[in-house]
Design goal:
This protein has 135 residues and is α+β, with helices and mostly antiparallel strands. The protein contains five helices and four strands; from the N terminus they run ααββααββα. Helix 2 packs antiparallel against helix 3, helix 2 packs across helix 5 and helix 4 runs antiparallel to helix 5.
């Protein structure tokens, strides 16, 4: 009896179990914390409702197309458990093209174009401002 072969067979189930635990599994990723998910949704909605245009890869799109593009990128990040805050969403999905590396721009009526990260961070500050109590 070959002792090395026997030891290898005994270790195989352990190696497979450890590999399964360490391998990223599609569908097992946790969604971002609830507060972050709300902020991200509000950011994307703010852009969609802004009347601004969104530039990616040198081409301008309306805010509705920007919204669907950013939601697809968000879904990709969530599937890989790569977004836990609105800041991570801005940095990892809404700042530049993952294909070309070119920075995204936002252009609003009567304003010059600016980096999307700048626009989104400013919008996030507005979302986080405490609302005064109503009387």
């Amino acid at each position: 009896m070959n002792v090395g072969r026997l030891a290898g067979r005994a270790l195989l189930p352990c190696v497979l179990a450890v590999s399964a635990l360490l391998a990223p599994a599609k569908g097992r990723a946790a969604p971002p914390p609830a507060a972050a998910a709300v902020e991200i949704d509000r950011l994307i909605s703010a852009l969609a409702d802004s009347g601004c245009e969104f530039q990616r890869n040198g081409r301008w799109y309306d805010a509705g197309r920007a919204q669907s593009h950013l939601r697809r990128k968000l879904d990709w990040l969530v599937e890989r458990d790569m977004v836990a805050s609105a800041e991570q969403f801005i940095e990892r999905a809404a700042t530049r093209s993952s294909v070309s590396g070119r920075a995204y721009q936002v252009r609003c009526p009567d304003r010059p174009a600016e980096p999307s990260a700048t626009w989104l961070r400013r919008a996030l500050e507005g979302i986080r401002e405490p609302t005064p109590p109503s009387r």
